Amino acid sequence: MTQSNTGAPHRFFGRFCDVIDHVYAHLDDDLSLDRLADIACLSPFHFHRIYHALTGETLAETVRRLRFHRAAGDLLEGHLPMQRVALRAGYSSEAAFNRAFKKTFGLTPGHYRNVRQSLHAPRATTAEEIPMPNVTIQEIDAIDLLLIRHQGDYMQIGSAFEHLNHWAASQQLLTPETRSFGLYWDDPSAVPVDELRAAACMSGPANAAAGEVDAMRLNGGRYACLLHVGPYAELEKSYDALYRGWLPQSGEEPADAPCAEEYLNNPRDTPPMALETLIMMPLANREA
């Protein structure tokens, strides 16, 4: 889901993986520049310059983006009071959180929760109640992928993308033509969250794989494609429309392969409401 623009010396890769893991595991804790520089075994001045060169954003921007991604999920779930959502996003003042959230999402948190409430409304029970999404069937060429596997909450796969992105930058594998994908094997409504299997992927040559980075090929063939526009936290609704609205009436059968997502723009410089994700369901070959 993330792409940086520049490379960085390979010797910093392991240190920055430790920083990434700490950030994702401690979003509620002190994530000051001094604390993370200490984890990276660098002075704060040098840490910040290297981090910005490697990621294309400042440390404060990274933490803010991740906390707001989580806040969007909190608001959609609707279980936490607004003050608690604000605190988890790093704001002791609900008013300050409202202003910052609106600047990022274009809506206040309360308005966002209300407008997007249908995302968590009870599922439709008849075909007439299920919205028909705008799905197209496309022939996709096979794509060589480099990937880091992730197990657990899909909302936390960003850590694997950060690892992959930093590794690729250190190997000078990121180019303007690099494409970003996610693979998702399991249905989060049917599989325990800690058993969910996914992979953060990028296009790249198989012979570059090393260490925790594996290689695989995304098979070519027919795919049912649905463009999702909006925050990643809302992707579940588009999957629901694809599987419950389109698939039963399409006459198609899904292939024995995971769904893929291609991330068409960069969350570092794209407003959450403008993020574009192409959901790709592999389809079985039609019998002659």
If you had to describe this structure to a student in words, what would you say it looks like?
Helix 1 (about 15-25) runs antiparallel to helix 8, helix 2 (about 35-40) crosses helix 3 (about 45-55) and helix 4 runs antiparallel to helix 5 (about 80-90). About 35% of the residues are buried. It contains nine helices and eight strands. The protein has about 290 residues and is of the alpha+beta class. It is globular, with a radius of gyration of 20 Å. The protein has two domains: about 10-120, Orthogonal Bundle (Arc Repressor Mutant, subunit A), CATH 1.10.10; about 135-280, Alpha-Beta Barrel (Multidrug-efflux Transporter 1 Regulator Bmrr, Chain A). The two termini are about 40 Å apart. The protein has an eight-stranded antiparallel β-sheet, covered by helices on one side.
List keywords for this structure.
Arc Repressor Mutant, subunit A; 2 domains; 288 residues; single chain; 8 strands; eight-stranded antiparallel beta sheet; alpha+beta; Multidrug-efflux Transporter 1 Regulator Bmrr, Chain A; 9 helices
Assess the beta-strand content as a share of residues: 15-25%
Measured as a percent range, the helix fraction is: 25-40%
Write down the overall geometry: globular
Average pLDDT, all residues: 87
Major sheet:
8 strands, antiparallel
Itemize the secondary structure elements and their pairings:
Elements: H1 13-25, H2 33-39, H3 44-55, H4 59-77, H5 82-88, H6 94-105, H7 109-115, E1 136-140, E2 143-151, H8 158-170, E3 180-184, E4 197-203, E5 214-218, E6 221-229, H9 235-250, E7 259-263, E8 276-282
Antiparallel strand pairs: 1-6, 2-4, 2-5, 3-4, 3-7, 6-8, 7-8
Helix pairs in contact: 1-8, 2-3, 4-5
